[in-house]
Every structure is written in structure tokens, then in C-alpha cells.
Amino acid sequence: xxxxxxxxxxxxxxxxxxxxxxxxxxxxxxxxxxxxxxxxxxxxxxxxxxxxxxxxxxxxxxxxxxxxxxxxxxxxxxxxxxxxxxx
Length: 87
Known about the structure:
Blueprint: E1 31-33, E2 36-38, E3 41-50, E4 53-60, E5 69-72, H1 80-86
Antiparallel strand pairs: 1-2, 3-4, 4-5
């Protein structure tokens, strides 16, 4: 039996813009260490090997989980405590 993604018109509703304004969360500014800008690591969530390079999936302090990024170990030298906690 073949099924199609079809909905009856009575199931559809018009979109209404929410009346509650969304809160805008200001992310913290970077910290300056030895003249360079750095961000604080809140947690390391995962690891992988990508292009023959070991990387960590980093959750940054003060940022939403959607803004996590993959970073190589060379970029996390000041967060080695978090790397050791992960392992």
C-alpha cells in the first residue's frame, strides 16, 4: 500500500505570529588571555577523528547548546581540565 503525505484542508490552520516577544540572550564577551580572545569551555560533549585530526565537541559557557562547535585539541590547551574530565 502506497501512502502519500496529504492532509485534508480542515486540518490546516493559518500561522499567527506569537504575541510574546522572544527573549534575546546576550552571550558573554570573550576573555582576553595573553593578548588573544578566548571563550570559556563549559563542557566537552563528544569527540571524533575528522580529516586525520582528533576533535572535541565543545559547549561554550554562556552560549546555547545549538552553538556548540568542533574544535581540535590545539585550540583547547587552556581547557585541559575539561578534556581530562571528558576522558
